[in-house]
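User: I've been trying to design a sequence by hand for this structure and keep getting stuck. Would you show me what you'd pick, starting by listing the structure so we're on the same page?

Assistant: Good idea, let's start from the same input. This is the structure you sent:
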């Protein structure tokens, strides 16, 4: 979920409501936040201070741990039997994976909050990138749903502060009326393609 709007637009009010409703639905096992301001302003009073980070160094660690947990819990094929059997159409097939060993450990959902992270940098593989080009953020948006990770990102400008890949992979985007004409064009080009008539798009 992306929230895009100027300061004092009400993003934090909506974010708190979204967190409350999402937590009721997914019953998050853990909530992490990345923010340069929330630890100062106490913007997330329901969270433990040790779960609020001021840089992105821990983001890749969280993703890697979740990936390992999901992969370990996915189960592995017991064996591939060489004998033949018939498929759903009655045709003979060979080398069928006949059984999967499932582990009993349940992987819970987690939530990651990204708020006021524009000034953060990420160093990964010896390369330092601005937050918009963060490889961890891209992986989070592309693979997060498979790792049972929900994401809420709050920014002032979706065009300049969120990459196109991240915008394309967001399930839901809330955009307050932007002041920038470039931002308005981005909204029209990326989000209003389903408008039935041109006047609806240009309204």
């Amino acid at each position: 979920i992306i929230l895009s709007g100027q300061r004092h637009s009400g993003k934090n009010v909506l974010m708190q409501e979204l967190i409350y409703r999402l937590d009721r639905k997914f019953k998050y096992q853990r909530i992490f936040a990345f923010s340069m301001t929330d630890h100062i302003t106490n913007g997330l009073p329901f969270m433990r201070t040790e779960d609020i980070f001021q840089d992105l160094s821990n983001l890749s660690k969280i993703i890697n741990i979740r990936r390992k947990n999901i992969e370990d819990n996915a189960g592995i094929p017991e064996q591939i039997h060489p004998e033949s059997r018939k498929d759903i159409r009655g045709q003979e097939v060979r080398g069928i994976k006949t059984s999967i060993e499932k582990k009993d450990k349940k992987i819970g959902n987690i939530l990651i909050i990204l708020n006021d992270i524009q000034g953060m940098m990420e160093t990964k593989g010896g390369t330092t990138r601005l937050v918009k080009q963060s490889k961890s953020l891209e992986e989070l948006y592309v693979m997060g749903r498979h790792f049972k990770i929900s994401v809420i990102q709050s920014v002032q400008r979706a065009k300049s502060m969120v990459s196109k890949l991240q915008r394309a992979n967001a399930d839901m985007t809330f955009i307050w009326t932007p002041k920038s004409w470039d931002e308005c064009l981005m909204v029209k080009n990326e989000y209003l393609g389903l408008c039935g008539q041109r006047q609806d798009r240009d309204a």
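That's my pick for every position. To get oriented when you compare it with your attempt: The helical segments are 11-26, 38-41, 57-73, 135-143, 158-161, 164-169, 181-191, 198-202. The longest helix spans residues 57-73.
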